Request: fold
Amino acid sequence: MFFVRAPHPSVQATVALPNPNWGDSVGLASTLQVVRAMDGTRYTFVHSKGGRKRLQWDFTIARHKAMELRAFIKAYYRSQVQVLDHNNDTWIGYLINNPFEHAGSGRAVNFPGGETMDITLEFEEAD
Amino acid sequence: MALKVTRQFGEVMGSSEGELRVTRQYMEVLALSYITYEESVENSLGISDTVHLPERHERVETVISLNETLPGEFREGLSDSLSFIQTATRVQTAELESTIEFLEDWTNYLNVGEHISLHESLTLTDGFEFELGLFFMLTSPMSLSQSVVDIGPRYRTLWTRIHLHDGMPFEDKFERLTDTFNLLDYAGRPYEVAASSTLSLIQDAYRKQTPTTIINFVQSLDYGKTKGLATQELNLEQLIDLQGDWTRTIIQTSGIEHSLTYYLPDPCDKKAYTPFVGESTVSSNPTPPNNTPPLIQGLPDGERFLLLHPALGEATDIVELRAPNLDNRERQAFTRINRETRGGKLSVFADPTWPQVNTLVLSFSGLTKAEVEETQEFMLVHLGEEIGIIDWEGRQWAGIVTNPNERAVQDGKRSFTLTFEFEGVLVETTPSGSHMIMSDGFEHVFDKARGLSTEITWTHFTQRWLLFPRLLEDVLGLTDEVDEELVPA
Reply:
């Protein structure tokens, strides 16, 4: 299970999603710039960003669930959210997609809405 | 006054014979250097005072009678002003009494336009100043101001009394003896005039003194006969005309807010439209999403994807296409500001009034050449204008086509594929055409718990019961914490 709750810290709404597709990722938000001098000396300029992490999940969900997620994003795109992912890890930060893209991926007769949709959520920790 | 001659000179003129003639004479006298004139103007008013010497208790009485008679019917004013000032000092026992009687008798009748004002003003001021004696009493037969100035601790009594004495000489039969003390206020005009009678008993005590308020109803029968028992009644009547209803609400804002969310496991909670929206009193929280999904009713039979102009209202230019391919995309773009603090904290801010752009990316395959030409003609005619879309789910959009120069690709002998991007907003109302859903609703709100009445019930004599059935509500916001147990998938 995958839960997204908002707004943090006074959470009011919860969206339950199925587990994301394979290929979810987590990584540091830190950046590094390497500069090399004429004599070969290497200098690095880092931007650690406080050790924050960026995560990305890809979902294939029913059409109605995609509409629910669309309404959720529209309500809380400027608020901090809590994510309880499929590994039972809790993350607090922002959904940073811009734009959020919902793509129709196929027919699903027995699913609410009769279709499935693909959506990618990009997330970055706040602290 | 007598003068005394001290020196005298005389000058005479005359011949050697005959008589002398005094021509000048000087006299010196001895006298006082000032003169005193004793004058006295006195008007005496004879007042006879009688002192009975043999009696031990002395009494001085002054009686003045002023009788004035106004015989005619004239506008005249008669005024008697009389002041008695009596002072008694250094006596063991003294009794000061001032008695004034005003008698005004108007026997003549009045004509129209004439008026007579009868006014009696009486001021009695008694004062004691003494240094001896243990206690004393000041009594004014009418209500008046009394003051005491003394030196040292004394027993003091201030007593203001209004005597209503009715008396009858003893007879064989009598009907009634009544003492009446009436406070009557009349408000005879239809204005907001307050008529009230107030009897206030106020006592202030200092230190170890106990104030008491006593109303005594004493009926005594010294001798004679009575019928039945003597009764004492105290009637308190209050009448309130309630001509309005007042709804009172008491709200106490504590500044504590709470929010709540929840999750109920359900087999369809991962695919159906099931947002779990709790409650929140946090004023800064955004408006949560709706609990009900948007209206998706599908297109009626025989209808397909429509391009409309104008965007809203009855369309005058319509292009009909087949449903788009499954790889259609909807993009939600928001205007946000992302900032990072020096400490590495990410802050995202957005004003809800800032632009939000929805973009539909739609591809249509299997179009005929005529459909492609009709669509491109539609885009050309309404280039840059707002058009409407009724999509394959029956939802209506209003916006513009942002890439009208997108080329249609022929991917079959009679098949073309056309792709365009549409930027617009979802019209959250019933789309135009034959998709109107009508419903009638009636809601009646009635608050049965609103009991509005004010009752004041007084029992006779000593006990009083006050009943105020009013609705009072205290709202105290408390922090609610819900420990929810999440069930992993």
